[in-house]
Amino acid sequence: MGSLPAFLIDLPSPLASSSSDDAKPVELIDEPTLLNLFKAQQGHLNYFFQHLDLSQTLAFTNALLRFSSLGGTVFFTGVGKSGFVAQKISQTLVSLGTRSAFLSPVDALHGDIGILTNRDVLVLFSKSGNTEELLRLVPCARAKGTFLISVTSADESLLKGSCDMNVYLPLERELCPFDLAPVTSTAIQMVFGDTVAIALMEAKHLSKEAYAANHPAGRIGKSLIFKVKDIMKKQQELPLCREGDLIMDQLVELSSKGCGCLLVINGAYHLIGTFTDGDLRRTLKASGEGIFKLTVGEMCIRNPRTTSPETMAVEAMRKMESPPSPVQFLPVINDENILVGIVTLHGLVSAGL
After folding, report:
1. Which residues are in coiled coils (predicted)?
2. 110-131: b or e for each residue (b if 16 or more CB lie within 10 Å)?
3. N vs C: which end of the chain shows fewer Cβ within 10 Å?
4. Residue 71 DSSP SS3
5. pLDDT tens track of the chain, all 353 residues?
């Protein structure tokens, strides 16, 4: 069980209320009360699932699919809490590959309705189906030739009678004790809209790669988009040395490039091996003053793990972390076995992977 923050522990119970002399004292909520509320909300949601007309929902989903497939835009609108839900559903559709936008009913009547065409569909969310702002919008949108769909929780409403299609979202009651605050009606609106969004996603066969392309700043998108070549260090950033270079002559190169290693190459830029700062410590411990005479080639690790520029960055990270022992970097070799870069674990993490 979670515990209260320290600053709340000493508060008196019941808590004094300062809103009114006649107001009842505020009491801390106990666990059974909270659990009962969640169970009640679960029951209201179950009522929605049990009574939802799937034929209406299927017709709604296919209408959105047809309009979007023909180059139209799926517009959503609503007022108040229903408006916030409409915005969220629209954004979900966009992220899943369906052209969509939210149209403010107020702004629409002051110029924004110009965005509507006869190729579009406008979905109007309203619990009561009698929202004044939406009723004023309907004839104006109809004049543009836009297909109109109302989504309500009322069997009969003015919106239902004035739109081309209506979807009824069964609402047992609001969780609010007064049956007023829209906390259950908005929940079923969200569940309905997001489920339809996934149905459209599957109908359009949206690939994981296409999904990632719509989320380039997120970790999922980066893992499916970024390749080693997008993140690797190259050219002047590389800590390079030759096989015959003395170890002590390369300390500046080892420490200044921020890679924790030296990349040992020959004249043709073929990778011979790597020498890390860990190798330096072990060599110093084992050789003592003899390290002044040792070359990098004598002590480097030959045939190290490598990767290619076209490898997905997330695959390079997995290779770094693979047994028998994790490494902090991978030299990047092209098809001609020429060293072209280095990718580091720090660089991958900094890129958001």
Report:
1. none
2. eeebeebeeebbbbbbbbebeb
3. N
4. coil
5. 456 666 555 555 555 555 555 667 888 999 999 999 999 999 999 999 999 999 999 999 999 999 999 999 999 999 999 999 999 999 999 999 999 999 999 999 999 999 999 999 999 999 999 999 999 999 999 999 999 999 999 989 999 999 999 999 999 999 999 999 999 999 999 999 999 999 999 999 998 888 877 877 677 777 777 899 999 999 899 999 999 999 999 999 999 998 999 999 999 999 999 999 999 999 999 998 899 999 999 999 999 999 999 999 989 999 999 988 899 999 999 988 899 999 999 998 888 87
Tokens of 281: 């410590």
Q: Could you tell me the two tokens for 326?
A: 């994790």
Q: How far apart are CA 227 and CA 238, in angstroms?
A: 18
Q: Specify the 3-state DSSP secondary structure of 52.
A: coil
Token digits of residue 278: 């860990």
